[in-house]
Amino acid sequence: MRIRIRPLALAGLAALGACQLDLASEPQTPTVHYALSPRTTEVDAEGEPIVAPATQEHIAGSLAMLFGSPANPRFLRTSEWVDDGFDPNWPTYAVGDDGSGEFDEDELAALQSDNRRDFARELAAIEAGEFERVRIPSWLPDLAGAWSAHLASKPADQRDEEFKTEAARLLVEFYPTLRDSAELYRQQCLHCHGTEGGGDGPTSRFLNPRPRDYRRGIFKFTAQKDKSVPTRADLYTILDEGVTGTAMPSFRRFSKAEIHGLVDYVRLLSMRGMVEHDLVTTVTNDDVLSAETVLESYAGVWEKWNKAPEKWTEVASEVPAPTRESIERGRTLFMDAATGNCFSCHGAEGRGDGASAFTTVPETGEILPAYKDDWGNEIIPRNLRQGIFRGGRRPIDIYYRVKNGINGTPMPAAVSSMTDEDIWALVHYVGALSEQPRTRANRAAAHGANQHGNGQHGDSQSGDSPSGGGSGH
Amino acid sequence: MMRLIAFLLLLAVPVLGVWTFVTAADNNWWFPPAYSTFAPDIDWLFDFIMYMVAFTFVVTEVALAWFVLKYSAKRHDKGVFTHGSHKLEMIWTAIPAVALLVIAFTQMETFANIKFASGFPTQGRFTREKPIAQVWASQFDWRVRYPGDDGVLGTVDDLEAAYEFVVPVNEDVVFELRSRDVIHSWFVPEFRLKQDALPGHTIPVWFNATKEGSYDLVCAELCGWGHYKMSGRVRVVSAQEFEAYQADLKAKWFSNGKE
């Protein structure tokens, strides 16, 4: 008996000792770098890198100079920006400050009231003078730093009202730095979207559809014309609402400031990817990669993002309500090869089974998707009858999709001969297609409608009584 | 010495068990506050079963410790063969059976009130025929679809909101629970209400929240890799605020993209 106990006890002691050792050593933070994209590191048939390794290092170095590292992301401030007083790292400052002035007074006020709600517990602790009860979330390293610096600035017995006010200000006027946002990105987004925003995080392998790759600056669900890069508002909407029917959830549980911060960081990752794309194109065109080329590309990419608001789709009219006429008109356009031509991909019934979106393998008779999206994934048209619209189900969302097409996919913009009225008619028709009255009351109503001789299921969609539609489901 | 340690260790189980039970409320290990009309019933049932179990636990643990002492090797060096006692077995089968029957009949009314069709509210604004909303669970978020102006779900004027489910206070609320993909479970601890969402099923659920506030809505069924982050909120507001919220949602829904 005794002999058996001893090795066990020894093993236990050894385990305890190991824990002690582990606790005693400094926590190690691995250095993370942004990796180059597969396009940059591609090899040819012989296994030789297409871009010479030295040039690859040059590109990586240039990108690190422009965008920093994952632990310390930042935008390089060019000499002109310093002269103009423009700081791309601080989008928060209201017009007139030395930031980029992208938020006006109203938006700043909204952010601050949201912060107040979000930090209510901490603000109450400050008010009560119990500073040690304040807990800064782990994903806000810079705020945590500022907080401990503030605590260290005065010993506990000398803290006065002014100290309290200043402490509360830190939280009320909180806006995440790029470092804070990168930390939040690491915790919440990285496992799908990857360190560089390449849509290649560890979880991405299990997802269909794949997470967005930001590095080309192509975003599908925006209000932008001409395949432009998105505005801040577009990215904010996606983070706030999520993308229905995909693994992208709503992140509304974070504060407005934090979501805005994530938008800033996604912009940085996207710009970094776009500059990398530019530089590789320059190199493969046998042009020299000089400091000027790098800065030129950087300025060019920034210009695209700065000009994004000019490409915003403005809708002059109010959103019209659907009528029997507009839905019928939408149906005509949907089926018209010269204007809408929607049926060719989305199918005559809107089930996403149109003939031109699929090809048949002659040998096997197998039916395969005909198109690929810009990221090389096979893509099929949306089934419009399920009521799941990834870019949103609001009339205005569907309007944007019809009017501008979907960037990165075969879905084209509406032809120029289509008027606003035509597009709204299509929106109404698509809305009617996706009606799903399935509740008991609706079923009863639909049943009643059918009994009155209106037995054709397809016809009832255009009826002005919404409960009459879709009884065929 | 070893025997004493073994005995103390054994004794520690009932002592710690009882101590946990007694001090749970002070240490905030107990349930969160109860904020729905049927929550007190659930809590009463929980306490009822808890005290029953606690009593049995103490009795059996004391008996166990007593047997360990009484029949220790020091006092009895040789075991006695016994084929068991038929009477004793009858007793310890019958008592739990009766206890289970008591539990089953005691909870019946509460369960029926919450889950059976007969328990659903028929008066008021929201009924099974006119639910306040459809709550959609999907990997990995919650979405709420309100019927909009026409009061009928599944039509184009439905309003949709992610993450947050807003309901009026002190009013019977019926909603339909649906799942887009796998089994999820709608759970708000403060309401003591948990209901699985099954793909392909439309499950009516009702509650009546008694206190305004914002409560955690969590998924209580392991639904995939992102289960831990499948969170939402249920915000209980006054009737006026509920109308205002619906109006805001409608304005946002039919906005033309401008502020």
Describe the structure in your own words.
The complex is a heterodimer of chains A (473) and B (259). Chain A is mainly alpha-helical. Chain A has three domains: 276 residues, no CATH class; 111 residues, Cytochrome Bc1 Complex, Chain D, domain 2, CATH 1.10.760; 34 residues, no CATH class. In chain A, the strands form three sheets. In chain A, strands 1-2 form a two-stranded antiparallel sheet. In chain A, strands 3-4 form a two-stranded antiparallel ribbon. In chain A, helix 2 runs antiparallel to helix 11, helix 13 packs across helix 16 and helix 15 crosses helix 16. The longest helix of chain A is centred in the middle third of the chain and has 29 residues. Chain A is globular, with a radius of gyration of 28 Å. Chain A starts with a helix and ends in a 13-residue tail after the last helix. The C terminus of chain A is likely disordered. Chain B has 259 residues and is of the alpha+beta class. Chain B folds into two domains: 108 residues; 121 residues, Cupredoxins -  blue copper proteins (Immunoglobulin-like), CATH 2.60.40.420. Helices cover 38% and strands 22% of the residues of chain B. Chain B has four helices and ten strands; from the N terminus they run αααββββββββββα. Chain B has a five-stranded mixed sheet. Chain B has a five-stranded mixed sheet with strand order 4-10-9-6-7. The longest helix of chain B is centred in the N-terminal third of the chain and has 32 residues. The radius of gyration of chain B is 26 Å and the shape is elongated. Chains A and B meet through helix 15, helix 16 and helix 17 of A and loops of B.
